[in-house]
Amino acid sequence: ALEVLHWSCDDVCRFVAQLGLEKYTPEFTVNKVNGGKLLDLDGAKLKAIGIQNHTDRSLLKKRIKDLKGRLEKERKAIEKESRLKAKMMQRTGRR
Known about the structure:
SAM domain-containing protein, 73% helix, Neurabin-like, phosphoprotein, SAM, single chain, SAM/pointed_sf
């Protein structure tokens, strides 16, 4: 999930196409939407870049929300692993 933060505009267009919404790739291209920008899109912003169809906006919002959820889950797992490693280092250092 973390790779979405590094997606290029082409990666975002592939993601949109995988959702069956390839007709909107020009809107994402013109607006230079990369992974970071994609995660910031809400309904109003999607409409502003040209996604006029409510059903299509809803699908995109849901998938963006899914991406954000996976990203957050992965971030928390990395933080937890980092804390565990720090604890292990402290215990090892005490002996």
